[in-house]
Every structure is written in structure tokens, then in C-alpha cells.
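A further point concerns the way the authors explain their paired sequence and structure data. An entry of this sort, consisting of the sequence and the corresponding C-alpha cells, reads as follows:
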Amino acid sequence: MGKQGMKRKKRKKKTERKKRMEMAKRIALLAAVCIFALCLVPGSGSGEGKSAGEAMVNLEGQWKVTDYLASRDVTVEYDFYEHFLGRSIYIRPNRIIKSFGLWADLREDVVSQYRTVETETVNGGTYGRKLGKEWQKKYGDQDVTVITYDMPESREWNASSTFVVTEEGEVLCWYLGNIYYMERYREAVTDMEEKELYGEWKVKRLVSFQDGWKGRNDQFYAAEYREYLKYGEEDGGYFYPESYLGNTVIIREDGTELYDGSGGLTDRLRTGGYSSAIVDKYDYQNEKGIHDELGLTNEEIQVFTTDAREPGKNIFDGEIVAVSRTEVIIKIYQGWYLLEKT
């Protein structure tokens, strides 16, 4: 091989070595970036042994308490579980806002500042050993992630807030020994047509109480008098949130009818068709006294109204809030309910 060939061979080896060095540098840089990104995930690299599922849990946002699941060591006599159906929970950085308090201040929003968040994955059967057969049937054979927000500056009874996330992604919340399902606020449609209202609907769940409702039990604690007082009708004493769950609502152009679980007609509102308008959600909620909000993320919502005949003699107010093509919200007596089309 001549001198020129030797030089070309050396240049080729030098070029290949340089390429390998550049590739190694790129791989090292990519690895460093990945390690740095992992360090940003809460709990990663901390030696706490958190699972990937735990690291991905993020509960920040607005939530609606949708359904009661089970109680832990609570007797029926002292169980106020219906008070918390339909309540709202807003988890923000460093604070949690709940639309309910403890007995005497059920109607007041409670703001609690949390300092730390603890996340742990545990066996569902062990965690819910006092929660009964329904819990064990659903979650006894799976792992659940428990998220606890520690709030040392809050009252003793509210020193922490605990939430549970199941393997299916269901989110549960605790309050006064009871555990409930939650759902995030969601966006509602605003282009529903009148004809889509008509048909048969099932009362699925409570969305909110009317402002001023004090509870379902026979008496409540009046802090100003430091004694227990009997409910009157104006306090919602005759309103039981679960009374209408599972009932059937039939909406027609000429009226709205409510049927109980056995098919008996319990109430009817005579109407003459509906018209719709796009309104400010917050103004509507305030005007109607919807204490716990509608659970919708929209700034504006679509509301159908009608000229109701004899409106004071029934439990409907003649207004319908659009949610989706198969879901609407209506007022029944002293609560707003989500209906699902059947």
C-alpha cells in the first residue's frame, strides 16, 4: 500500500473514532436528561419505594362527590352520609376547599391549608377491612393508592384529608367515617336542541342542595343557641336527597312527569314547550341558590326554560341545564339532580 493509501486509512479511522465519541457524548447527554426528568417526579429517587402509579397521581382540580360507598364503624343513628352527596371539593396547590363543614357549619365552605402530601400503595382488602362486603367485593383483591394531605394548622377533626385511587382510576374521598366516590368537573355541551330533551330519563345522582338546607336528620345543632333544634320545612326538613334516586322523569313538550320506583306518578308540571339561552354559569348558580355548583367547567351554560302552569304547586321549576346528549340537570324539590336518558 502506498503513502497516499496509508494516509486515507488513517483519516478514515480518525473520522470513525470521532463519530463514535460524538455518539457516546449524545447518549450520555440523553441519559443525564432522563435522570434529571425522573428526579422531578415526586417521590422518585427518594428511597421511599413509591410505585410508578403513585408518582403519577395528581388530584389537583375541582371534584364533585357523587355517591356513597361505605361506612367505617358508624351506626345509622349517627350517620350523616346524605349530607355530603353532591358536595364539591377543590384541590389547589397548598390548599383544599370543601363546600361543607362539620354539623354546625354544614353550609359554609371550609378552606384548609396542607403542608405535605403522603402517598402509599396498600392492599385493598387490608385497607378496607372495616368497610363491609361491598368494599371487599370491589377492591379486596387489588392494590389501592392512598393520598393523605396533612393539614397541621386545621382543626383537630380536620387535621388531614385522605383520598383513595383504585386500580381502575376511581377516586374516593373520606369524611366523618364515610367513604364516597368523586368525579372531576366536566365540560357541558351548549348546542343541544329542544327535541333532544324529550323522552324518558332516570334520576342518576344528586348534584347540589339548595342554599339553606341543613340536613336530613330530625334535628340540627344551632350554634347561636347552643342547642339542638327541630327542622322546619324552610330548613329542608322534608327533603331527603336519596328520595328521588332511581326515579323516572318523562319530559314532553306539554309537560314533565315524575314516577317513583314502582311506576306511580308522583308529580307533574304542565308546560308549553321550551326555549333555550346561553347564560353565565356563576350568575345562574348564585341566582338559583345552588350551593355546591353544577359540577361543570364551562363559563357559560345552556339552560332551557318553559312557561310553567301553576309553578308553585309542584316540585319542578321548569328549567333544564344541558350537560350532554344523554344527560341533563333539573331541580326536584330542594335539590338539583343529574338525569340520564334511557
